[in-house]
Write a structure and sequence with these properties.
The complex is a heterodimer of chains A (392) and B (308). With 392 residues, chain A is of the alpha/beta class. Chain A has helices at 2-20, 45-64, 84-96, 108-112, 115-121, 134-137, 149-162, 177-193, 212-220, 232-245, 290-303, 309-328, 333-341; strands at residues 31-38, 72-79, 101-103, 124-127, 142-144, 167-173, 196-203, 225-227, 251-254, 277-281, 347-349, 352-356, 362-363, 366-374, 379-388. Chain A starts with a helix and ends with a strand. In chain A, 55% of the residues are buried. Chain B has a domain at 27-234. Chain B has helices spanning 3-39, 46-67, 76-102, 105-125, 155-177, 179-189, 191-196, 201-226, 234-249, 254-275, 280-294; strands spanning 134-135, 144-148, 151-154, 229-230. In chain B, helix 2 (46-67) packs across helix 9, helix 5 (155-177) packs antiparallel against helix 8 and helix 9 packs across helix 10. With 308 residues, chain B is mostly helical. The radius of gyration of chain B is 20 Å and the shape is globular. The chains are: A alpha/beta (392), B mainly alpha (308).
C-alpha cells in the first residue's frame, strides 16, 4: 500500500515536467538533495504524514517552476517515529548520503537530540515545527520556521489575565522539552501579570494516558483556567475528556500540539467536553490571504484534506531554504547558513510574513484557535478566536 | 469545603481510580497465574493477547453496529473472547507444547518471548492494523454516575470495577466448585498423579489456556473502554505490570493474582495522587522488590522447599 502511494507520488512529481513541454523551464543543472526527518509512523504520524505531503507539494511546485538555482530538488525522507534516538540515526544516515540541508525534526524533544550533531557536522538544520526555546539558541547551524515557546506560553498567560483569572492551574510533563519549556514560559509570564499558579500537576511522560488524579487535584483548587501543553494524541482521547469526567468545567488552554486533536476523539464520546478548549497555532486555514488560499486549495485538491499547521510550516520551511539558496547563489550548508543568518531577509509564507531574529527564530504572530461542539454536524470544530501579532 | 472533608474526598478519589486500574491488572494477572500454575511457564505473550482482544473489539464493534445499531456495544466482547481463546490455544498447540516436550523451562520461556514479538509484528503486518494508533469507539459512557463531595465516578470506572469483581468471583467459584476446576488444581499440583486418577492432562491444559486468554479479552474490554487508543504494542506495558502483580501476589495462586493486581493499581493511583506521577512506576517496582525480599514466594505464596 505504502509503496503504491510512494510510486503514485513519484509519478505525480514527474508528470508536470514531462507534460508541460516548455511552458516553464525544467531544471537542468543537476540535483539538490534535501533531507527531511519526520515521525511518519507511530504516535505523531498525523503530523509526519501531513508534513511529508506538504514537502512533496512544495518540491513539486519548485521543480515545476525551474528548481532552485536551476537545479532539481530531490527530497530524501526519513522516518524517526518520534523517537529521539531514531532522529539521530536518521540524521546520521542523511549526512552519510551527502545531504547538506536537513528539514526536521518535528517534536522539540527529537530536534534537541540532533542540533549539536548538525553543528558538529556543519549541516544546515531547519526545523519547521520545534518550538522549544533552547532549539536555536545554542547552535550556529540551526534555524526554524515557527515561533518559540516563550511566545506561546506568554499568549496563554495573557489570555488568563484578559479573562480576569487571578489563580490558574497547570498540567504538564516535566520530563519533556516541549511541555516543560511551555510550562516555564507560562509560569514566568503569569508572574509578570500577577497571576498565581496554584496547582501545578505533572505527568510522567508525554505518552501518559491517565490524568484522573491530576484533574481531581486541579479541580479541588477551584481554578477556572488550566494550561495543559500536551500533544494531540493524548489531548484528544484523554486530557480533555478526563478533565470533564473529573468535573473540571473551566477553560483548558494548550499550545500548537493541540492541532488535529479533534481527529483523535473516541467515537461516541460526549463532545460538549470540547467547549472551552483553546490553543495557540501557526496559521488559520480559512485566512483570505492569497498565499494561504493557494496553499490550502492546492493541498485540498492533492490530498483531499485541510492542511494542519504542521503542513503549513513544512511548506514554508522548504521555501525558506529555496530563498536562502537563491540569495546565496549556492547550495552548500555554509552558504545557506550565512544567508539564513541575515536578519533583514523577509520571508513571505503561509504562516505569516516574517524575518529571523539573531538566534534563528522567526519574529511573527500567532493565531488563537478555539474548539467547540458543533451540534448541527455532531462534531468538534475549530474557529479562529484571535490573531496575536505582538505582545507587550 | 472544609479541609478535612477535602482530604477525605481526595482519598476516595484515589481509591476509585486505584480500584479501576487494579481490576484491569488483576484480570490480566489471572491469565499469567493460571498458565504458570499449570505448566510452570511465564507466558510473556499474554500481554499481546490483550492487544488481539483489543483489535477484535475494534473491528467487531462497527460490524456489529452495521447489522443492528441497537445492540449494546459490549456484546462484541463475546467475539473477542472467542478469538483470544482461539489464539491462546493455537499458541499452546503450535509453539509451547512441542517446545515443552523437547526442551527445558528456559527454552519454553524464550519461546514465550518470541511469541510475544511474533504476535506484535504479525499484527503490524496486517494492512488494516499497521504501525499507527487507532482510536476505539467509546464503549461505556464517560458521564458521571455520581458527583459528590468533589468525587466523580463515571460509568466506565464503575462498570470496570463491577465486571472485574464479578469475573474474579466467578473464576474462584469455577476453580473451587466444578469438576473441571478441580482437575485444573490437580494438574497444577502433580501431573503424574493426575494421570493416575484419570484426568486428561493435555485437555485440562488446553482449557486453562482458553480461559486465561479469554480473560485477556475481558481485560481488553475494560482497558480500552477507558483508554481508547490502540496500537500493536498496547499490551506490552500492561502485560508487564500485570506480571508484576502476579508475582507480587504469589504466582500460580489465583487469589494472589487478584490481590497483587489491586495492590499495584492502588499503589499507582496513590503515588500519582499524593507524591508524583513520575514516581508511580518506580513505586510499583520498588514494592515488588521489597515484598520479594521479605516473602520470596509473594504475598499469598507458600515457601515450599524443592523436593530432592
Amino acid at each position: 500500500m505504502k509503496k503504491t502511494i510512494a510510486m503514485l507520488l513519484a509519478a505525480s512529481m514527474v508528470c508536470p515536467l514531462a507534460a508541460c513541454g516548455g511552458a516553464k523551464k525544467a531544471p537542468e543543472g543537476g540535483e539538490i538533495k534535501i533531507g527531511t526527518i519526520s515521525p511518519n509512523t507511530g504516535a505523531m504520524a498525523v503530523y509526519g504524514e501531513a508534513m511529508v505531503n506538504a514537502y512533496d507539494m512544495a518540491a513539486a511546485e519548485i521543480n515545476a517552476d525551474g528548481g532552485i538555482n536551476g537545479k532539481k530538488v530531490v527530497l530524501v525522507k526519513k522516518d524517526d517515529q518520534m523517537d529521539p534516538t531514531e532522529s539521530l540515526n536518521a540524521f546520521n544516515a542523511l549526512v552519510a548520503e551527502g545531504v547538506d540541508v536537513v528539514l526536521g525534526a518535528v517534536s522539540s524533544g527529537c530536534t534537541a537530540a540532533i542540533t549539536d550533531a548538525a553543528n558538529e557536522e556543519e549541516v544546515l538544520l531547519l526545523t519547521p515545527t520545534s518550538t522549544a526555546d533552547s532549539i536555536t539558541t545554542k547552535d550556529d547551524y540551526v534555524f526554524r520556521t515557527c515561533y518559540a515557546d516563550s511566545f506561546q506560553g506568554k499568549i496563554a498567560a495573557k489570555y488568563a489575565k484578559d479573562l480576569g483569572c487571578k489563580e490558574v492551574g497547570v498540567l504538564y510533563c516535566a520530563a519533556d522539552t516541549y511541555s516543560k519549556g511551555l510550562y516555564d514560559s507560562f509560569a514566568n509570564a503569569c508572574k509578570d501579570y500577577g497571576i498565581n499558579v496554584v496547582a501545578a500537576e505533572s505527568a510522567a511522560t508525554m505518552e501518559t494516558i491517565e490524568f484522573s488524579n491530576q484533574w481531581a487535584a486541579i479541580k479541588a483548587k477551584g481554578v477556572g483556567f488550566v494550561f495543559a501543553p500536551f500533544y494531540y494524541y493524548t489531548v484528544g482521547p484523554y486530557v480533555v475528556p478526563q478533565a470533564r469526567t473529573a468535573g473540571y468545567t473551566g477553560i483548558i488552554m494548550g499550545a500548537d500540539g493541540y492541532d488535529s486533536a479533534n481527529n483523535y476523539i473516541s467515537q461516541g464520546s460526549d463532545l460538549s467536553a470540547w467547549n472551552n478548549v483553546m490553543f495557540t497555532n501557526h496559521y488559520d486555514p480559512a485566512d483570505k490571504n492569497p498565499v494561504v488560499k493557494k496553499f490550502v486549495t492546492n493541498y485540498k485538491t492533492k490530498y483531499n484534506d485541510t492542511p494542519n499547521a504542521l503542513a503549513a510550516l513544512a511548506y514554508d520551511g522548504l521555501y525558506m531554504i529555496k530563498k536562502a539558496m537563491e540569495k546565496a547563489g549556492a547550495e552548500d550548508a555554509k552558504s545557506v547558513r550565512d544567508a539564513l543568518a541575515d536578519t533583514s531577509t523577509v520571508y513571505k509564507g503561509v504562516t505569516g510574513t516574517f524575518t529571523l531574529d539573531k538566534s534563528g527564530t522567526p519574529v511573527k504572530g500567532a493565531t488563537v484557535v478555539e474548539y467547540y461542539y458543533d451540534k448541527a454536524n455532531n462534531k468538534v470544530a475549530t474557529k479562529l478566536r484571535d490573531v496575536v501579532k505582538k505582545l507587550d | 469545603m472544609s479541609g478535612s472533608l477535602q482530604t477525605l474526598s481526595d482519598f476516595l478519589q484515589c481509591l476509585i481510580v486505584g480500584l479501576r486500574l487494579g481490576s484491569v491488572y488483576a484480570l490480566v494477572a489471572l491469565g499469567y497465574t493460571m498458565v504458570y500454575g499449570i505448566i510452570r511457564l511465564i507466558n510473556f505473550a499474554h500481554g499481546d493477547f490483550i492487544m488481539v482482544g483489543g483489535y477484535t473489539l475494534f473491528f467487531t464493534i462497527p460490524a456489529m453496529l452495521a447489522v443492528n445499531d441497537k445492540l449494546p456495544i459490549w456484546l462484541a466482547v463475546i467475539v473477542a473472547i472467542a478469538v483470544c481463546a482461539l489464539v491462546g490455544v493455537t499458541v499452546e498447540l503450535v509453539a509451547y507444547r512441542p517446545v515443552r516436550k523437547k526442551g527445558t523451562n528456559m527454552t519454553a520461556l524464550i519461546t514465550a518471548i518470541a511469541m510475544s514479538l511474533f504476535l506484535e509484528n504479525l499484527a503490524q503486518a496486517i494492512p488494516a492494523i499497521g504501525p499507527n494508533y487507532k482510536i476505539m469507539r467509546r464503549m461505556f459512557s464517560n458521564k458521571a454516575v455520581l458527583n459528590f463531595l468533589n468525587i466523580s465516578l463515571d460509568w466506565t470506572t464503575l462498570l470496570t470495577i463491577l465486571i472485574g469483581a464479578s469475573v474474579m468471583i466467578g473464576l474462584q467459584l469455577f476453580v473451587k466448585k466444578t469438576k473441571l476446576g478441580r482437575a485444573m488444581r490437580a494438574v497444577s499440583e502433580d501431573k503424574q498423579a493426575s494421570v493416575l486418577v484419570g484426568i486428561n492432562v493435555n485437555r485440562t491444559i488446553i482449557i486453562t489456556f482458553a480461559i486465561g486468554s479469554g480473560l485477556a479479552a475481558v481485560a481488553a474490554l475494560m482497558y480500552f473502554a477507558q483508554y481508547s487508543t490502540i496500537m500493536t504494542t498496547s499490551g506490552t506495558m500492561l502485560g508487564l505490570k500485570a506480571f508484576v502483580a502476579a508475582v507480587l501476589g504469589g504466582i500460580g495462586i489465583i487469589p494472589g493474582a487478584m490481590l497483587g493486581g489491586l495492590v499495584i493499581g492502588l499503589v499507582e493511583s496513590f503515588t500519582t495522587g499524593y507524591i508524583s506521577s513520575s514516581l508511580a512506576d518506580a513505586f510499583v517496582f520498588l514494592i515488588l522488590i521489597i515484598v520479594l525480599i521479605i516473602k520470596p514466594a509473594g504475598i499469598l505464596g507458600k515457601n515450599v522447599g524443592e523436593k530432592v
